[in-house]
Fold these 2 entries.
Entry 1:
Amino acid sequence: MINVSVKCPHCGKSLMDSKKKIDNRPSIKVKLTYAGKNAPLHLSSLYGSYNVALDLNIPMRKIAGFRCPHCNADLKSTRKCDLCGAQMVAFNLKGGGQVQICSRRGCKKHILEFQDPKSELQAFYRSYLKNFR
Ligand SMILES: [Zn+2]
Ligand SMILES: [Zn+2]
């Protein structure tokens, strides 16, 4: 599996949290907002893993807001999920490119985009798709 390392597309600060481990790796930390409440959300940094740690109770199929824990910028992207129509949320990969996830709870849509088309990771991802889908 690919281990991603991401930063905020707005302030450029790292979203990696080495204190909170998920899947035995540093997690991705964002601020989740739902129904006027907010709580830290930790996502697995393993691409393809849906393990999360969240203190807020968000019903399945509801759409949450994602914000940067440093600058509070809204992380939603211009792209909509092609599975459910909700807004996607974008993080910048430290090595260039973006990873986007769907903001709807329970929707597993995610996209990984690399800036460098020749990157090793992309080649790895292509073979990952070929072998596992
Ligand atoms: Zn930020
Ligand atoms: Zn979706």
Entry 2:
Amino acid sequence: MELKLTGLTKSFGALTAVDHVSCVMTSGVYGLLGVNGAGKTTLMRILCTLLAPSGGTATWDGADIFALGSEYRRILGYLPQDFGFYPDFTVEEYLLYIASIKGLRPAVAKRRSGELIEQVGLSGARKKKMKKLSGGMKRRAGIAQAMLNDPKILILDEPTAGLDPNERIRFRNLLSELAAERLVLLSTHIVSDVEYIAKEILLMREGRFHAGGTAEQLIAAMGDKVWRVAADKREVDGYLRQYKVANIKSVGEGAVLRVLSPTCPAETAQEEPPTLEDVFLYYFGEGSGEGNDAI
Ligand SMILES: Nc1ncnc2c1ncn2[C@@H]1O[C@H](COP(=O)(O)OP(=O)(O)O)[C@@H](O)[C@H]1O
Ligand SMILES: [Mg+2]
């Protein structure tokens, strides 16, 4: 079970949305983390064979995914970023409908839909219309449809968008469960979605992978660049102009800042251990901190 990308590239005219991306993925959860416009959806659409690359290759167990064609798509499940559903279908009808599109035999479709409704925790909502579901329930129905063919590769594009904190937790647990014997690639711009469940986090920016590894490895690679600085209220603007600031907390007449900087920003600054959130911000965040290419 190996999905291998080699120099994968996609250009739209002058814009290179995916720029020579390479990596090897096996089973487990892979988190594709990047801000809007990073190229996540474009990459995923290539991996679903919906979009031909301009260059490079993607292979599944050594065979080109486009050459494999329908053989590859049979083992693929995909939840698009803005997945279409049918508002007046019930959850059950929706799944049976998608199953028929996927070519599942009616008896198999019925059994799989039933199992998946249970697994994604929608048993109480099976007769509910899709339009009546909460955001989290809709997404879970979306995952269920992607899982109908028991795919070896499950690609989920921003599956946590619009979910509340409880729904997020539930979602993470579900994903860990589903990833036991398949490759799950999920995209997000929210660090906590992948921090604990991803076997590997791929940081994507402007079409490229800038770093990859476990949360611990990414944190270690960033090194000591987080500082706690106590400042006067009137000094805060200066810090914001000069550095990337992860957090500002008002304390009495002053403020305590979490400054990201390769060099010590103030005599009184104290070093703090970095978090994955700091790595993401240091790397992708707005601000004028220097040394952004340091990891
Ligand atoms: N079909 C397309 N035609 C032209 N530009 C596109 C197309 N699809 C995506 N892009 C551009 O490619 C870049 C990456 O987009 P996308 O893959 O959607 O990123 P993300 O999913 O990380 O937000 C963006 O600048 C986007 O505007
Ligand atoms: Mg996207």
